[in-house]
């Protein structure tokens, strides 16, 4: 269960861990509308390790800002593993950071389908490892209202950053 206190604790841990490792993080957010970036930048001292937060709610923004391929969107839809992976890599390349997290989901109350019901959220983390970029993805199915689904998404994204550092 996520709430503002647990999100604040996760964000503080992200800032502390990345600062001590001299690493930087960037975000590429759709369904959270910048909430992950807000959580991180609410922590004093976060300017040392945070430089980019991209809110790319529309497909056009995903394409123009992050380099998501139009064909990927056509073939898989904006809430998909392929799209969030391209979003995360795009954020990493744009920002020059060491790790990027991307999210795209259906927070509701409408917009869900049988294949992708409300609460479906795709996550991707792109991490620089020497000269290579490693990506990992995850799909979660959250239950609750729009606000709760978004809170859980922010918490899961931040925990994922911690798990990969």
List the helices and strands and how they pair.
Layout: H1 4-20, E1 25-29, H2 35-41, E2 50-55, H3 59-66, H4 70-76, H5 81-95, E3 99-105, E4 120-129, E5 132-141, H6 146-164
Parallel strand pairs: 1-2, 1-3
Antiparallel strand pairs: 3-4, 4-5
Report on this model:
The chain contains six helices and five strands. It has one domain (4-164): Maf protein. The protein has 165 residues and is of the alpha/beta class. Helix 1 packs across helix 2 (35-41). It starts with a helix and ends with a helix.
CATH topology: Maf protein
Q: Under the CATH scheme, which class?
A: Alpha Beta
Total strand segments:
5
How would a crystallographer describe the biggest sheet?
5 strands, mixed
Strand order of the largest sheet: 2-1-3-4-5
Question: What percentage of the residues does DSSP assign to strands (E)?
Answer: 15-25%
What is the annotated CATH architecture? Alpha-Beta Complex
What class, by secondary structure content? alpha/beta
Q: Count the helices. How many? A: 6
CATH homologous superfamily descriptor = CinA-like
Helix content: 40-55%
Distance between the termini: 23 Å
Work out the radius of gyration. Answer: 15 Å
Q: How many domain units?
A: 1
The backbone outline, from C-alpha atoms, is globular
Pick out the low-confidence regions: none
Q: How confident overall, as mean pLDDT?
A: 95
Following the backbone from N to C, one meets helices and strands in this order, namely HEHEHHHEEEH
């Amino acid at each position: 269960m996520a709430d503002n206190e647990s999100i604040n604790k996760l964000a503080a841990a992200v800032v502390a861990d990345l600062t001590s490792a001299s690493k930087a993080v960037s975000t590429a957010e759709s369904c959270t509308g910048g909430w992950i970036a807000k959580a991180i930048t609410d922590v004093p001292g976060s300017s040392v390790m945070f430089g980019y937060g991209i809110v790319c709610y529309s497909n056009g923004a995903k394409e123009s800002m992050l380099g998501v391929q139009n064909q990927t969107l056509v073939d898989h839809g904006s809430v998909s593993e392929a799209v969030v992976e391209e979003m995360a890599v795009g954020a990493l390349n744009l920002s020059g950071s060491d790790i990027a997290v991307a999210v795209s989901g259906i927070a509701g109350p409408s917009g869900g389908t049988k294949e992708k019901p409300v609460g479906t959220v795709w996550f991707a983390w792109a991490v620089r490892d020497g000269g290579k970029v490693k990506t990992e993805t995850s799909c979660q199915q959250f239950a609750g209202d729009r606000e709760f689904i978004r809170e859980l998404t922010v918490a899961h994204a931040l925990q994922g950053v911690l798990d990969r550092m």
